[in-house]
Amino acid sequence: MAPVRRDTRGIVDAADLFARVDFRRVEPAEPLRRYVEQYWLIDWDLSEPYVSYVVPHPAVNIVFQRFPGQEPFVEVAGVQHGLFAQKLEGRGRVCGIKFRPGGFRAFAPQRAVSQWTGRRVRQPEVYADTVPDTVLAPDDEDARVTALDAFLLGLDPRPDPQADLAMGLVDRVRTDRTIRRVTDFARAEGMSVRLLQRLFSAYVGVGPMGVPPLERSREWGRVILRFRIHEALERAETERAVDWAALAADLGYADQAHLVRDFTSTVGVPPTAYAEAVSPAG
Predict the structure, then answer these.
(1) Given a cut of 50, is residue 27 above it in pLDDT?
(2) Taking burial as the number of CB atoms within 10 A of a residue's CB, which of 42, 81, 189, 239 is the most buried?
(3) 3-class SS at 154?
(4) C-alpha closest to that of 42 among 95, 108, 121
């Protein structure tokens, strides 16, 4: 099993976010690590409103949230499309559960994960008895993590070989940059394209490489694009001078122009402009 990720991939201008909020990532209890990548905890006390931006991972999150002037609530956030923005102001707290891509279905087997895609559902019926304050109230971080563990273990997840298969395939898409076409990917895995698409629809919620789903839906993200943009964001924030042509080749793009187009359409600015604003030399 891959370790919990400690990087900032997906967060736009991570250094700015971390300077304004208290952001931590924590491992779940060992029995949950098969399907849960990490917990993420955020506390803030801001004198001025702040908007954070994230290029979403192809993963489902369950998020316990407390915002000023609102009752605490729990929300299931399916795989989101485009650039995700969240306004933070005043004093608040969030405790999130990030599932491994393909892992959420073990905790909510009633429906395909694609039915959550593009949606943020407050107090969903599958967690109707959940009391958000049991997670959000403790100031002690260990107590919050213990409450998250108890919440998930109380859902009685059962081993699911199809979830294991889906998670393994997503890991391949994330790490193998030679994968470019869904037909070649399916053939290499000994699967038909139709079967691969059904598996991703049922367990991941978005398609592997942008091929339209079998279901009638306008919402069909691209797993491989997410991972490429995450890598480009992190390189821009951690390197003094990014060789964008070399990075494009390393990420499996045909040329630099394709990376620039994908980055700009996803993040909203060209990669060179982003790097100038956020890199250590910027």
Answers:
(1) yes
(2) 42
(3) coil
(4) 95
Q: Is 0.90 surpassed by the pTM of this model?
A: no
Residue type, 132: P
The H-or-E segment that residue 105 falls in is none
Residue 278 parent element (H or E): helix 271-278
Tally of CB atoms within 10 A around 32: 21
The two three-digit tokens of residue 213, written as one number:
């789903």
Name, in order, each residue with C-beta under 8 angstroms of 129's C-beta and a sequence gap of 6 or more.
none
Query: CA–CA separation, 155 vs 202, rounded Å?
Result: 19
Q: How far is CA 267 from the centre of its chain?
A: 15
Q: How far apart are CA 89 and CA 226, in angstroms?
A: 28
Query: Please, is 76 exposed, middle or buried when counting C-beta atoms within 10 Å of its C-beta (0-12, 13-18, 19+)?
Result: buried
Q: And the tokens for 153?
A: 């273990």
Structural domains for the chain: 14-153 (2.60.120)
- Residue-wise pLDDT tens digits, 139-184: 999 999 999 999 999 999 988 999 999 999 999 988 887 787 788 8
DSSP class of 26:
E
What CA–CA distance (Å, rounded) separates 255 from 128?
49
